[in-house]
Amino acid sequence: MYIKICKCKECATTSNVLLDRVIAVLDKNESSEEWFVKSLKDDYIVRVKTISYIVDAKPKVEYDIDELQKIASLMSVDKIHFIDETGTI
After folding, report:
1. pLDDT, tens digit (0-9, with 9 covering 90-100), for 7-24
2. Interatomic CA distance for residues 17 and 20, integer angstroms
3. What's the predicted TM-score (pTM) here?
């Protein structure tokens, strides 16, 4: 009977250790996800600013679909949308 009780205590201790490890991994993954999302946002802001710079430097490109598709491809985006001062696309 004593051996059985000891094994149950060992199982409980092992389970607690494993659960603590799982919790630690989940916490680490959450912080990695937050960092990754921030990094993606920063990357896309750079892309938007670059496209804006190109269009500002060469305004005619706004009406040239082929050129816009080329820029979108170079910037690794699917589409380029233009928004006016009122927020209309």
Report:
1. 667 777 888 888 888 888
2. 5
3. 0.62
